[in-house]
Design brief:
Rossmann fold; 259 residues; elongated; alpha/beta; homotetramer; 9-stranded mixed β-sheet
Chain lengths: 259, 259, 259, 259
């Protein structure tokens, strides 16, 4: 059983009647419902919970974290961001949705601005598959459409992906790398573009399929790495090959490295 | 003329007689001397200067920043780290040397722990070229040796590189990806492993050649991107293709996006 | 159940008493025995069979092909090489072992010389993991040794890998990227270095684990792509968006493209 | 001075009045005129010349080869294809234009089908820059348009690029990775999509700029690698570290490896 945690900012749903009507139980609940099943458990966490719902214990029991945020990016506690990053490095999968391109943990993991151009005009988006038979595209046709979406346009300020899985065509004339994969430490990372809060994107069957596939793809069954940032000293007498110490030294025996 | 700025932490040189003897004018000066010439200007900056010597003005006039730090990683001001990252995204080249694998700006740009194993035993290191005729290896043989070096061992906690240029063999039995390239925004990034402070690595001719080549490789002659993190709204009437606005909206006309 | 086919050249085993003693039933049989089990079926095919044992029917029923060849690379029929390449593009996984770096199908899929330096001296090899928790390394320590192996040295003439999973240290002073992954069409490709015919490498437990893991990793459960080289024409009236034909044309309606 | 050779199939120009009118001196001449200047020499070669105009001597004096072919892909001599591939591996740059996605040397270097979907309807193409300040995009805006072009659509059967530089939007609803870079051996490779023979694409100023930039980017000033496919034996007494030969051997002293 893969354990997914769907994190929702849960702000628009409370402030906007439009969003509340489309997602009466919150976007996170709709996303969790879409992901749950066929060997995947899905629970939710929201920003207003203690530690944003992402305690050490919760992350330890999360195989794949799915993140939707937008208006309150700046309110996410930096300590939780580091905790999420460490969990990814230790092997937790992470999926960032739509406006989460500007979320703190995504930017933290990418090391780049993650910026783009955008337009909120309810235009048609068509996602094209660029990597046939990629596990994230299982069961999908070579392209599918979302009739109403926000436009995100290139240049998208991300590192070159491990693989580009989807590229979007927009009615207004732009293109965007809408599905991109990365590895960060032992963690698999996927960014998926669609999902503007004022449109019913997370009720779409093809989007559901991408989400389910992505959770399966991001899941790393290996035991979590215990100390993913540890930099161990290897004493001379533990070197794989016999070695005689030579030359001047700065560090004293048994001393920790600087960081 | 390419303008390189060599940043040195400049702490070991003042605290350790061993380091001071090898690098009487500081490691940064020795590195600058090695890089200077043949169309490259090289000046230095050190941590004890105001703003660590890396003012907005200085970075604006730096084509390639070379970074050596170790003991005082934690003392580098986070605002300067962000300033360096923004300069890289806008097109400044950046070269990180040896223990700078754990420097704040390198970790910021990688999005990973950048950890490794290590041993200070004055052992022999042999660097092997893995990408023949790579510009960073111009004029170098397929391998070269450093008789005394600190060991850094895999697994090295970095993202998969754009290109792996060098891999090191160590006498004690380890290996390490010693020369790796990345692109972050418009900026070229190179990490180069050798350079422990208690050995004369920066007096070595092959190392000099790598440093000079790397500065040339990292140099991006294009004008710096003015606002490398900007995410512009494209109004409906500026869309490349004629477009009629539809559907519900969250953002008011002219409003900035959330971040 | 994953269906693996282990292809063996099966020449050294018949010509060399040394090899025959280590692998009395052929290297392919030993490799198949190591891979079989835990949800993997493993059968063998050899060069001396009709169509080298790799008929269309056989490849259609092969999820992952494992290839060991050396002395008779040049005797492999070019039509079979193309057949294997097409199967990979359509989704079959492929694992190339040791001297298969110079096999026709590996070179065909890489598009590069795949050359290296080598020495047959029974020296110690130590493989280091460079991508922690990679599925191919499941259950393995950060490094493991093979006491007797042939040396392969960098530069290795391959394209930059999707991921570098292992790097080898050799007693004689060289290093080598010993585990590298690629994607070619819908097919996952893995190259794994160890396996010289005069040493008992394929009797080693850690090597067994890598082989099993690699087969699981390379397996793509999606249905094979029917025509992996097809370049379909999209008629104007089937364009996703309404389109009016304009301008001069070279192709007649319904005509195939040139290739 | 960079020496570019522009190779043209030169068939459509002789068979089609439409193409002859747009490119009265042949497409290759128009492309050479666009590239020539500012430190670049550009000469042409065509398929009807002896050895297709690509003799050993000519390739030895070519820094960057630019290739346009379409109707006669199948008529290109396989020995010339290997010669071109070897030149690339040894350090020659190579730029493949438009329908050259199906040329023999491009497919040879990629190791994949290089297939796509297509439509000849004179539709609008808009190329978006995905890698800001990339040298190949020097002096170009974030997007530019070609009013009449053939459509090429994803999925494009190529390996994951080193960098994706351009992505195209098409009026009929498709997208395409229109500018992609690779490294093959010591050679830099660039594919650029636009350039259908019945439209005036190679008279466009932005296209000229891409072509000039790409030639500069692809140029590797290092001396050509003499034997790019050589796999040298390293005798035991030439090993970098002292080594005593052990274990059984297959190869006799001084023997060449199998290939």
């Amino acid at each position: 059983m893969i354990r997914a945690t769907i994190w929702g900012e849960n702000v628009h749903e409370k402030e906007s009647d439009i969003v509340a009507e489309i997602y009466p139980n919150g976007m996170h609940s709709c996303i969790a419902d879409a992901i749950r099943g066929d060997g995947i458990e899905a629970i939710t966490a929201t920003m207003d919970q203690p530690e944003h719902g992402l305690t050490e214990a919760r992350l330890a029991e999360t195989d794949v974290l799915v993140w939707w945020g937008h208006k309150a990016h700046g309110d996410v506690d930096d300590r939780i961001v580091e905790r999420v990053a460490e969990a990814v490095w230790s092997g937790m999968g992470a999926i960032f949705l739509h406006s989460a391109h500007f979320s703190k943990p995504f930017k933290r993991l990418m090391g780049t601005p993650c910026n783009l151009s955008w337009r909120e005009a309810g235009e048609r988006e068509r996602l094209w598959l660029t990597s046939r038979n990629h596990p994230i595209a299982a069961g999908l046709p070579d392209s599918f459409e979302l009739e109403y979406e926000e436009m995100y346009g290139e240049p998208f300020g991300i590192p070159e992906p491990m693989e580009t899985v989807f590229i979007s065509w927009f009615q207004g004339g732009e293109v965007f790398r809408s599905g991109v994969t990365y590895k960060r430490g032992a963690g698999n990372v996927f960014y998926f573009r669609p999902g503007h809060e004022t449109y019913p994107t997370y009720h779409d069957g093809n989007v559901h399929r991408v989400l389910q596939n992505a959770v399966r793809w991001a899941y790393n069954p290996a035991a979590r790495i215990a100390q993913p940032t540890h930099a161990p000293n290897v004493p001379v007498d533990s070197a794989p090959e016999p070695l005689e110490e030579r030359g001047p030294k700065l560090h004293k025996p048994g001393e920790e490295g600087y960081r």
